[in-house]
Write a structure and sequence with these properties.
Number of domains: 1
Structural class: mainly alpha
Strand content: 5-15%
Number of helices: 14
Helix content: 40-55%
CATH topology: Glycosyltransferase
Strand order of the largest sheet: 5-6-7
Order of helices and strands: HHEEHHHHEEHEHHEEHHHHEEH
Shape: globular
CATH architecture: Alpha/alpha barrel
Distance between the termini: 46 Å
Radius of gyration: 20 Å
Bound molecules: glycine
Number of strands: 9
Length: 408
């Protein structure tokens, strides 16, 4: 029998729901919409066949950008399929989640940049969490070994980027750059210790989180994007930016990575300093006069042309997902505040302003994200990691609701 396309199958589900007289909540509608849109994205990827075309963004000519396995974003499409499978319980998604996870397997051996945590955590990490497949656990451990090779003991950090002779990074004067984004790679290291009992992964992660806590943050709670170290003396050489509008500015996704990264670090260590960091940086974001009413930040809180600057839906999705988790680590009043704030972000992202009509937007869910405005790369476009963290946030919201209904 010919398989129904995802669009047709999902449209049938939507038709039945609409005609059953049931009133759907905004988040249920968001999940239904995601199921249809990502179903269409799967149809496209399947029709292109092998080699795997990994959907990432939209290019200036309107065509979809597909990344290769070494790109830091290579795990997010398979990760999106895992979350969609979890959110919908639709087992027809499972073979695709597995297929496209296995298609990025080579990323576990990558040692020339730090992003294996993003790449393998979102794909194999979620696959292991949802299936218990031991082969997926092996990939997580292998990736943590790869990431460990980038640890620089005298500085106590995991180096983010290499600085090749003649490169733009060398021209900037960097020697051993660490970006705040790297906090997101630590979850992989904690997981590798859980899986193996080998505490060396945990220890490297804690060392990195401690040094980052000391060097990356400003008194107002915001963070620098890039700290450049001397890997021999361990000293800081520069406090810079790469994707923000100025070295001294608060690049929005960087603030989001900090909130999320220290929430994970607190979960894994119970170190109160990490919790204070996550909540403190969230307070900076929340209280910033340039945070728009819909709580989807401009790409940089200090962007000179606000309010005529692009928004960054990816930063908003990361903050929402982090806040749903963070709400579990604070008192009742703060917990309510964090959930309400995350809900407000998610309702904005789920509105027509940010959620694309089905079949449009390169078949990505969300519009209006920015990769790097200073570099002129991917400005006001969909990004696969905006979709990934949006679905993760929807899943975390559902988990919270299940827990609170059990406690009634
Ligand atoms: N890690 C790259 C970014 O957040 O754009």
């Amino acid at each position: 029998m010919k398989k129904l396309s995802f669009f047709v199958a999902a449209a049938v589900v939507a038709f039945v729901a609409c005609n059953s007289g049931e009133t759907k909540s905004w988040d249920d509608i968001a999940v239904d919409n995601a199921r249809i849109q990502i179903g269409l994205q799967i149809d496209t990827v399947e029709s292109l066949g092998l080699p795997f075309h990994n959907p990432t963004s939209i290019q200036p000519d309107g065509s979809v950008l597909y990344c290769d396995v070494t790109d830091w974003r290579s795990g997010f499409f398979p990760g999106t399929l895992w979350y969609l499978y979890e959110l919908t319980g639709d087992s027809t998604l499972l073979p695709y989640a597995r297929k496209y996870t296995e298609a990025v397997a080579d990323a576990q051996y990558l040692k020339w940049h730090h992003d294996v945590g993003f790449m393998i955590g979102s794909s194999f990490g979620n696959g292991y969490r949802l299936t218990g497949d031991s082969a997926y656990a092996c990939a997580v451990v292998e990736a943590a070994k790869s990431l460990s090779t980038r640890f620089r003991p005298n500085a106590g950090i995991i180096q983010s980027w290499d600085v090749d002779p003649g490169s733009e990074r060398e021209a900037k004067g960097w020697a051993c750059p660490v970006i705040i984004d790297n906090m997101m790679n630590l979850e992989l290291m904690f997981e590798a210790t859980h899986l193996t009992g080998d505490s060396s992964f945990y220890n490297l992660a804690v060392s990195h989180a401690d040094r980052t806590l000391k060097e990356h943050f400003r008194p107002d709670g915001s963070c620098f994007h890039v700290i450049d170290y001397d890997s021999i003396s361990g000293d800081v050489r520069h406090r810079h930016t790469a994707q923000g509008c100025a070295h001294s500015s608060a690049w929005s996704r960087g603030q989001a990575w900090a909130i999320y990264g220290y929430t994970v670090a607190y979960r894994e260590t119970s170190n109160d300093a990490y919790l204070q960091r996550a909540t403190g940086t969230f307070d900076f974001v929340k209280n910033h006069p340039n945070m728009p009413a819909d709580k989807v930040p401009y790409w940089d809180f200090d962007a000179p042309g606000i309010p005529d600057e692009p928004r960054d839906a990816s930063a908003a999705a990361v903050i929402a997902s982090a806040l749903y988790e963070l709400s579990g680590y604070v008192d009742e009043v703060k917990s309510r505040e964090y959930v309400d704030y995350a809900d407000a972000i998610m309702q904005s992202l789920s509105s027509a302003e940010y959620t694309a009509p089905v079949g449009e937007n390169g078949r990505f869910i969300l519009k209006h994200s920015v990769t790097s405005l200073p570099a002129g790369v991917e400005i006001d476009v969909p990004l696969n990691y905006a979709d990934y963290y949006y679905l993760e946030a929807l899943k975390r919201k559902r988990d919270l609701e299940k827990t609170s209904s059990r406690n009634l």
